[in-house]
Amino acid sequence: MPKQVITPISEEAAADLQVGDTIEISGYILCGRDAVLPKVLKLIDEGKDVGVDLKGQVIFHTAVSPAGVGPTSSNKLEIESSIEPLSKAGIKLHLGKGELHPETISALDKYNAVYAVIPPVTALLGAKTSEQKCVAFPELGMEALYLIKVDKYPAIIGAAHGRSIYEK
After folding, report:
1. Which domains does the chain show, CATH number per domain?
2. pTM attached to this predicted model
3. Closest listed residue to residue 94, CA positions, set 113, 75, 115, 74
4. pLDDT 10s per residue in the chain (168 long)?
């Protein structure tokens, strides 16, 4: 049976997630990918408001389009390089697809954050998304920073506490 993860995620709940756990995420989550994440990091670096509290938040590496949402590769430079600073800023769960570098896995551990692999099932995820709102950078269209409300999003913990499901 999957673990139920409700947003925002507490430090204790994040610490309880282990590599290989299946989870279902419910609540509000952020959506952003390579076009918006560098802009979000710039706001954080400048001490400016991102438009939403990042503490305990989930970020899904995706765009939000009329066709729905589906994961993009988390190991793209602009995305993977955002994982450590976003974890430091309070993000507890990063959702995407693909293998992360060992340095990124260590950074997740340092900030008690985890990474979950979400299957590329746009239609399923669309049916489990009930609200969406652009919270920053609307000029980027579907690649802007969005806040969406989800119910039981399925995922698998891919990296936690210094370990990865991709270890050989």
Report:
1. 3-160 (3.20.130.10)
2. 0.82
3. 115
4. 999 999 999 999 999 999 999 999 999 999 999 999 999 999 999 999 999 999 999 999 998 877 678 889 999 999 999 999 999 999 999 999 999 999 999 999 999 999 999 876 776 777 888 999 999 999 999 999 999 999 998 899 999 999 999 886
Phi, psi of 147 (to 5 degrees): -115, 125
- Beta strand 129-136 with 114-117 is unpaired
Q: Are the beta carbons of 147 and 30 closer than 8 angstroms?
A: yes
Pairing of strands 129-136, 145-160: antiparallel
Q: How far is CA 51 from CA 25, 47, 64, 145, 165, in A?
A: 22, 12, 17, 9, 33
Closest to 59 (Cα-Cα) out of 136, 137, 145, 133? 145
Please state, in angstroms and rounded to a whole number, the distance separating the CA atoms of residues 58 and 153.
12
Q: Are 74 and 114 in contact (CB under 8 A)?
A: no
User: How far is 60 from 12, CA to CA, in rounded Å?
Assistant: 21
